[in-house]
Amino acid sequence: MRHPDAAAGAERPPRDREPLGHRARGRGARHEPSRSRHLVRGARCDLITRLALGLADDAVTTTALASRSPLLLAPAMEAAMWEHPATQASVATLVARGARVLGPVRGRLASGREDTGRMVDCTVIVDAVEETLGAAG
Predict the structure, then answer these.
(1) 94 with 101: CB under 8 angstroms?
(2) What is the DSSP string of 32-76?
(3) Does residue 29 register a pLDDT over 50?
(4) Rounded to whole angstroms, what are the CA distances from 66 to 18, 61, 79?
(5) pLDDT category, 1, cuts 50, 70, 90?
(6) Which CATH number does the domain 36-135 belong to among 3.40.50.300, 3.40.190.10, 3.30.565.10, 3.40.50.1950?
(7) Share above pLDDT 90 across residues of the chain, in percent, rounded to a whole number
(8) What are phi and psi of 107, to 5 degrees?
(9) What is the pLDDT of residue 3?
(10) Burial category of 84 from C-beta neighbours within 10 Å (exposed 0-12, middle 13-18, buried 19 and up)
């Protein structure tokens, strides 16, 4: 049971804020869309999956999903996580949507094991960013 006034303010925004004010802040911002890129370095399994599912529940996923800019992912995780069918399905979904996945490569992982799951070297990431910028004209 609840009091009739409990939801009275639910239909209208607080008086001190305009509706969608957080979205309006970005309007009129000057940037060059053809030069914008979204890079997620050290992309974990959960982040890759949230992007594939369209879940914008943090700053990284919200920014990436709200953008029209190319998405580059540099995954880093344990081999079993990288090789899991769910992770591979999420990666395939993102690639089908135009994302570029850089790695991972074989090397020493956070667990100390030597296996596939190590993030690619930063020079590979920089080269990929420069390549996509060059492709944009």
Answers:
(1) yes
(2) -GGG--EEEEEE-HHHHHHHHHT---SHHHHHHHH--S-EEEEE-
(3) no
(4) 21, 8, 30
(5) very low
(6) 3.40.50.1950
(7) 64
(8) 175, -170
(9) 47
(10) middle
Place of tokens 């020079």: 123
Residue that has been written with the tokens 């998405």 in this structure = 71
* DSSP class of 93: H
The answer to whether 37 and 133 are in contact (CB under 8 A) is yes
Q: What residue type is assigned to position 42 of the chain?
A: G
Distance CA 17, CA 14 (A): 6
Tokens coding 50? 């949230």
* pLDDT value for 31: 46
Structure tokens at 109: 């992982």
CA atoms within 13 A on the CB side of 70: 17
* Phi, psi of 51, deg, nearest 5: -65, -45
